[in-house]
Amino acid sequence: MAENSMEKDLRYLYSTCFRDLFFETRATRMLSLLSPLVSGWSYLPMTNWSAGPEYYAHICNDLIINKKESVIEAGSGISTILMARLIKKNNLKTKIISIDHDPIWQNVIAHCLETDGIAENVQFICSPIAQQGEYSWYDKSKIVLPENFVTDTIVIDGPIGNVPMARYEAIPFLKKYLSSECYTIYLHDTDRPDEQETIRRWLEILPNSAVQTMWRYSVIQFGTAFWFAPQTVA
Q1: Contact 164, 135 (CB under 8 A)
Q2: Cα separation of 166 and 54, whole Å?
Q3: In whole angstroms, what is the distance from residue 71 CA to residue 183 CA?
Q4: For 76, phi and psi rounded to 5 degrees?
Q5: Could you give the CA distance from residue 77 to residue 51 in angstroms, rounded to a whole number?
Q6: Is there a contact between 129 and 138 (Cβ–Cβ < 8 Å)?
Q7: Long-range contacts made by residues 102-109, C-beta under 8 angstroms, separation at least 24?
Q8: Using one digit for the tens of pLDDT, what is the confidence trace for 141-172?
Q9: pLDDT 10s digits, 45-91
């Protein structure tokens, strides 16, 4: 019995170490892909809420490969900065609208953009969290978008998941702005039950789309010309 228990413990230790090594190697590879958007620019304000490098690389690949024109983002942060740097470095015409509930945090991100000389690439909307409909989300009355606004990319890593279904209301509200030709929707933290249920419900109101589940995020897509996941193997 003791030997069987030891063998079980060793197998668990091996699988855990292998998993951790795999994700560490994967993250290192993604950081190398992102290096043109990190090296030579201002320091990135990393926090416990920041998403991983694979998530950022996936979004940047999509903007380049599928020539995306308009991004609306729920949750300002490192993704905002990296997308704006990509627009500058690759001379893209992509426009970004970034929504967040915290004006102090948005000012931190805006300062980084100003330091990098890329502030013109992002329009910020500050909207407090409010109970609207079944769940709370950003106050929709504060989200005033340009006339005839159309987006082909939605990036969602906010609000923080401290209330039930914190991010669900994003697509019921933004669906009317989605391009009829193609779109991509990113939802971070889909390793959590609420975000998994959110994806399931979104697919019900976006019946022609498909979903790809990654490690900690999911991608809903419709009509994109090329698959755009970052290279993860040699």
Answers
A1: yes
A2: 23
A3: 10
A4: -70, 150
A5: 9
A6: yes
A7: 102/126, 105/76, 105/77, 106/76, 108/45, 109/45, 109/76, 109/77, 109/80, 109/81
A8: 999 998 899 999 999 999 988 899 999 999 99
A9: 877 777 888 999 999 999 999 999 999 999 999 999 999 999 999 99
The answer to whether 65 and 92 have CB atoms below 8 angstroms apart is no
Q: Outline where the chain has alpha helix (H).
A: 2-34, 53-65, 78-89, 103-116, 170-174, 193-205
Query: Which pLDDT does position 51 carry in this prediction?
Result: 81
> Scanning the structure block, which residue is given the tokens 């413990």?
9
At 22, the amino acid letter reads F
Provide the token pair at 114: 């100003």
DSSP 66-134: TT--EEEEES-SHHHHHHHHHHHHTT---EEEEEES-HHHHHHHHHHHHHHT-GGGEEEEE--EEEETT
Tell me the backbone φ, ψ of residue 194, rounded to 5 degrees: -65, -40
Strand partners, 220: 185, 211
CA distances from 159 to 68, 94, 137 (A): 24, 24, 7
Q: What is the pTM of this model?
A: 0.88
183 sits in which H/E element:
strand 183-188
Question: Residue 76's CB: how many other CB atoms inside 10 A?
Answer: 26
pLDDT tens for 9-24 read 556 565 665 455 555 5
